[in-house]
Amino acid sequence: MKYNMTLTPEEEDILNGSQGETMAKVIKTLVLYGDAFGAEKFVDVTAPGHLVTSFGISVLKPVFSIMDELINSGLKAKMPFTLDPRPIDYENVKCNFAQKLVFNKIIYGMQESYEEQLKKLGLKSSKSFTCTCYLDEVGNTPKKGDVLSWAESSAVVYANSVLGARCNRNSGIIELFGQILGKVPLFDLLTDEGRKAKWIIEVKTTKIPEAQILGSAIGLKVMEDVPYIKGLDKFIGTELNDKVKSYLKDMGAATASNGAVGLYHVENLTPEAVESGAALIRDDARVYVIDDAELERVKSSYPVIWKDANAQPERCFIGCPHLSYNQLIEWSQRFEAELKKQNKSRVGLNTIISSAPEVIEHLKKDDKAVYDKLTGFGVKLTSICPLMYMNNPLCGSKPVITNSNKLRTYTSARYFTDDEITVIAVKGGF
Amino acid sequence: MAKEFKGRPVVAGNITAKAVVSRQGVNTLATFQKSALKKKKQVICSDQNNKDIYNKNLTGKALCLPKTIGSTTGGMVLHTVCALGIAPAAMLFSESIDSLGAAGVILADVWTDGTIVAVDRLGDEFLNYVQDNMTITVKEDGTVTVE
After folding, report:
1. Dist. CA A28–CA A408, nearest whole Å
2. A278: left (phi over 0), alpha (psi -120 to 50) or beta
3. Could you list the residue range(s) of the whole structural domain that residue A157 is in?
């Protein structure tokens, strides 16, 4: 095979089959992938991985065949990995008989066998299913400068931007190959040049922008480019505390799903922006001004694709990406205040909050009163991926509302801001 | 009148197909997942945000686009639709290929019996010129003829 990357003698041997035919295909894939981006060489992966493929979805049989081939060849990740949320939780996200039938027999019929494959390939633990692996409770938290082989767009953009780790926006399977080889091709977001901003975002709103709409506006404008965001520190400060990190988590997820952003810098806040400031901005950077009118324009552009646009919502999903610990506390306070305002004791709409298994455990252990309060309001806590739930046509065809711009992008769920959705969920409809 | 463009072959091949054109980034997961999940024999684009190709048949077509965008399951989804035999015949990128698009066409090439021919760096002029249903001929050296 012809390739342009410079390989070490050991890497060349692997490509020529010294570690077996399957490992040769693994490195061949990564060499072709690196060549496509002008990578000069491989660099070592320095921290555990995170996989995007958490669901035993029958249609992905070709992916499971690759997994089998890897396992049968005795290959596994060099470090234990975490991965995205499981797709179903019948206890907290109720399904009727027909919906369960579709989930169990048609869509996620391979979940059990796939999880067995994952264990053999290096899954960290049965609790490691979350899109927010970087939270303290989960513990897959890379350090600044770590080189990663991750997928899951919201996790990659968080690791790059908020933690200062280095990871490209890898696709599913590619990230696993990097973890098996222990190396990734050096290009783009792994390089200093690739981390420079091609866009300056000037936030000129009159109040703190809704994180999910700001991220959506940025993603739709800059696509895969790196934005340098000015003016946001005026609203969220210059300290990366838990509240700010949660805001950036949600904003980043929207930049990554509405566009293809893998890294953003926030002036005076994110690690590299604090360290290097405007030196991170390329000379030819373009400018995008975001004011109140622009946010309203973006929000009003979201189409309503429910079968009946005038229907009342039947379910509400909050927590895509998974909520952090402080967000669980905040949502209990939001609901408490709104219930009081509407003179009610329980939410009127089937409301589901998603968070990592270990974050929910943390809440149950250290803030049992909050956990009891939330569940007492009728809110269900789960660790599923709402997107995976909505993949079931019998579920996805129902009128669902969400505060997640990612869920809105990939499903028929209607987007509402945090304030709007609180009112609707408590009231039980519009 | 035929017009020729020269790009870089990422996955080389010779094909002729009808064009389907997206002037904006193609969100792979949103575009392909519904057809793949329902085991359709053809991919009908299900991305509500992409007015250019929404509800259009992409199977066997030359999908002309600036780049792919969206969730990192994207490459895996492309690999899957190729393994299922319902992928576009070619993906022709006006810009440099993105990491998810590259992963998809390379995984398909190395790990399935099928191929999605991929050429990138065709330029803005290519994307401005090409229209739906034009006939596209791709040569393995990255030459793309539009007529």
Report:
1. 36
2. alpha
3. 9-190
In a domain, A61, yes or no: yes
DSSP secondary structure string for all residues of A248-278: HHHHHHHHHHHS-----EETTTSHHHHHHGG
φ, ψ of residue A282 in degrees (nearest 5): -70, 155
Clarify whether residues A285 and A245 are in a common domain.
Answer: yes
Looking at the fold, whether A171 and A227 belong to one and the same domain comes out as no
The alpha carbon of residue A344 is apart from the nearest alpha carbon of chain B, in Å, by 37
Stretch A109-137: mean pLDDT = 96
**A65 and A205 share one domain:** no
Statement: residue A61 has pLDDT above 90: no
Q: Which amino acid is at B144?
A: V
| A260 and A380 co-located in one domain | no
The A residues from 270 to 329 touching B (CB cutoff 8 Å) are 303, 305
Whether residues A62 and B37 touch (CB distance < 8 A) is answered with: no
Task: Report the candidate in B32, B119, B44 with the shortest Cα–Cα distance to residue B81.
Answer: B32
Report yes or no: A168 at the B interface, CB cutoff 8 Å.
yes
Q: For chain A, give the mean pLDDT.
A: 96
Instruction: Select the residue from A37, A133, A410 to test the B interface by mutation, using most B Cβ atoms within 10 A.
Output: A410
Is A171 within 8 Å of B37 when comparing Cβ atoms? Answer: no
- When pLDDT is averaged across residues A10-26 and rounded to a whole number, the result is 98
pLDDT > 80? residue B70: no
Chain B residues with beta carbon closer than 8 angstroms to that of A23: none
Residue A419 lies in a domain: yes
For A190-243, write each residue's pLDDT tens digit: 999 999 999 999 999 999 999 999 999 999 999 889 999 999 999 999 999 999
Chain B touched by A217 (CB under 8 Å): no
pTM of the model: 0.93
- A156, A190, A224 - which closes a domain: A190
Among A171, A198, A258, the residue to mutate for chain B (most B Cβ within 10 A): A171
Q: Is residue A339 part of a domain?
A: yes
Q: Torsion-angle region of residue A268: left (phi > 0), alpha (psi -120 to 50) or beta? A: left
Here the ipTM equals 0.92
Nearest alpha carbon to residue A204 among A295, A289, A265: A289
Domain spans of chain B, in order of start: 3-146
Interface of A with B in 29-48 (CB under 8 A): 29, 32-33, 36-37
**Is A43 among the domain residues?**
yes
Could you tell me which CATH class the domain B3-146 is placed in? alpha beta
Q: How many CB pairs under 8 A join A and B?
A: 125
CA-based nearest residue in chain B for residue A155: B72
pLDDT digits (tens, 9 = 90+) for A268-297: 999 999 999 999 999 999 999 999 999 999
Are B99 and A28 in contact (CB < 8 Å)? no
* Closest Cα in chain B to A84: B73
Residue among B68, B72, B109 minimizing CB distance to A172? B72
Q: Which of A63, A171, A409 sits opposite B72 (nearest CB)?
A: A171
Please give the tally of structural domains in chain A.
3
Nearest-CA neighbor of A386 among A134, A130, A214, A171? A130
Residues B84, A171: C-beta atoms closer than 8 Å: no
The region of weakest confidence among A194-203, A277-286, A400-409, B23-32 is B23-32
Residue A258 pLDDT > 80: yes
E strand residue ranges, A273-419: 281-290, 315-323, 350-355, 380-382, 400-402, 414-415
From A269, A300, A331, the end of a domain falls on: A300
State whether A87 and A161 are in the same domain: yes
d(CA A48, CA A137): 15
How does pLDDT run across B35-65, given as a tens digit for each residue? Answer: 877 778 899 998 888 999 999 999 999 999 9
Rounded to an integer, the average pLDDT of A358-381 is 97
Q: What is the CATH number for A366?
A: 3.30.499.10
